[in-house]
Specification:
Strand content: under 5%
Distance between the termini: 22 Å
Shape: globular
Order of helices and strands: HHHHHHHHHHHHHHH
Structural class: mainly alpha
Radius of gyration: 18 Å
Number of domains: 3
Helix content: over 70%
Largest sheet: none
Number of strands: 0
Number of helices: 15
Length: 263
């Protein structure tokens, strides 16, 4: 189920993905809490279709329904989905609160850089700047450790943490400066293509605001790789318009509208 869900996400088969996950839901929805990750995948399909009420319902009823149990994958699912929703301009209300409470227990963790970055997202969004700064500082310290995760922290962890912190304070340019040099190295933190794609989305969103010419290049690449992503086409249109490419921007907007109309 999980493997097929990934294939459909990467191929932009959003309606098929929803149907696939729903059709087999009786078979997987009574297993352990990995089931919440499959609901997360369904949320990504709905997000690409701009069905935001459905995404919020999936978040509330499934993805974040057992956050109090403090399972790291649940926090990763929830934090990444909320951040994505906010990048789409959706008001998520006070949903960061429960994630923040769990993340405060993990400020000093030295386990997985990928997971710590999701704790950092919750701390930044949940109004805990001191704890967030401490986690980022601990990640910096850990980057000197002669361990696998220490090397990952030095290679991509500290830069991604710096980008998250910059985005939280509204500094899109600093976020671009932190993420751009490491974008081809992010694979080493682990997670799936779908999970790490959040950091690519952060980069292109920040670039649209701070470096439109760079954003245009990044989004030309992204729309070629993910041609059925309406979100990407809309960001591409914004970058093109900022660069004075009105006709191309209009075409990108039309492509986004077509994708949503046929989703």
């Amino acid at each position: 189920m999980h493997a097929v869900a990934h294939v459909m996400e990467m191929q932009g088969r959003h309606a098929e993905g929803i149907a696939w996950v729903r059709r087999h839901e009786p078979d997987w929805s009574t297993t352990n809490n990995f089931r919440f990750h499959l609901y997360w995948h369904r949320g990504l399909y709905h997000l690409e279709r701009h069905e935001f009420d459905e995404v919020l319902a999936i978040y509330d009823n499934y993805v974040a329904s057992d956050i109090a149990s403090d399972m790291y994958l649940d926090v990763c699912n929830a934090a990444s989905l909320l951040w994505r929703l906010e990048m789409h301009g959706v008001d998520v209300g006070d949903r960061w609160k429960d994630l923040t409470e769990v993340s405060l227990r993990h400020v000093d963790d030295h386990e997985l850089v990928f997971v710590s970055l999701h704790y950092l997202m919750a701390l930044l969004k949940g109004g805990e700047p001191e704890a967030a700064a401490r986690l980022a500082a601990r990640m910096q310290d850990y980057s000197n450790a002669a361990t696998a995760q220490g090397r990952v922290s030095g290679r991509v962890g500290t830069g991604t943490a710096a980008a998250l912190t910059a985005l939280a304070r509204g500094d899109a340019g600093a976020a671009v400066d932190a993420l751009l040099p490491i974008r081809y190295e992010l694979w080493c933190m682990g997670g799936s293509h779908a999970q790490r794609d959040l950091f690519e989305e952060m980069l292109v969103s920040a670039a649209v605001r701070a470096r439109p010419r760079l954003a245009r290049a990044l989004l030309a690449e992204r729309t070629a790789a993910k041609p059925r992503s309406a979100w990407s086409w809309r960001r591409y249109a914004a970058a093109l318009r900022a660069e004075g490419q009105a006709a191309a921007a209009d075409a990108a907007e039309r492509r986004a509208a077509e994708l949503l109309a046929t989703a």
